[in-house]
Amino acid sequence: MHAIGYGKNEDIKNGTPQNIDILLVEQEVAASDEITAVQMVVAADTKRAALLEEAKEIELKLEEGGLKYCPVGKLDAVVEGNFAVGAEVIYFRSEMARREGIGVKGTVKEDKDAHGDYTIQLPFDEDGEIAGRLSDVYEELTDIGADSAEARAGAILSGLQFLEEQKNWPTSAFSG
Fold first, then answer.
1. pLDDT less than 50: residues of the chain
2. What pLDDT, on the 0 to 100 scale, is given for residue 1?
3. What does the DSSP assignment read for 25-49?
């Protein structure tokens, strides 16, 4: 015989005959009108989600590269007054860096915009560390089969007796 109970596990065990099993299941996530059953199972793979997020962040860094948008006040022209496209400039992160002469050499990529900012290219990932990490993340995603997550989630739901059409229902369509 099986029963479902609510309360403290010890309280239930003390008042239950030996031949009865009590199963307690906590609902870990709130139901949603937007998230389907398959999506909920896929989202439970926190390692996959973290790796995908890291890959997205690294891809954005690589896409932007060493591009920086900065006001002329943070720049010094290598050739005095020359901020034309292609000109070499020195970028200072702060006034303190300027006073101490700690700047990074870059190249003007675009003329001054309406806000007075220049687009400059600074050295970026010259040692390949960022690109190398992205490669590692892609490899980890391959190792865990990230591209087959939805298929595996569907198989899990099938094993739990979900009908095919139920897999795409919003989680709010199911009872608690």
1. 1-3
2. 43
3. ----S---SS-BHHHHHHHT-HHHH
Burial pattern 25-60, b for ≥16 Cβ within 10 A else e, equals: eeeeeeeeeebbbbbbbbeebeebeebeebbeebee
The encoded tokens of residue 65 equal: 């590269």
Interhelix angle 46-64/129-143, nearest 10 degrees: 150
**Three-state DSSP class for 78?**
coil
Q: Are 140 and 55 in contact (CB under 8 A)?
A: no
Indicate the Cα dihedral angle 88, 106, 98, 75, nearest 10°.
60
CA atoms within 13 A on the CB side of 69: 7
- Contacts with 122 (C-beta within 8 Å, 6 or more apart), sequence order: 66, 67, 68, 91, 104, 106
pTM of the model: 0.60
Q: How far is CA 93 from CA 17, 67, 77, 86, in A?
A: 72, 14, 15, 20
Cβ distance 171 to 36 under 8 Å?
yes
Average pLDDT over the chain, rounded to an integer = 86
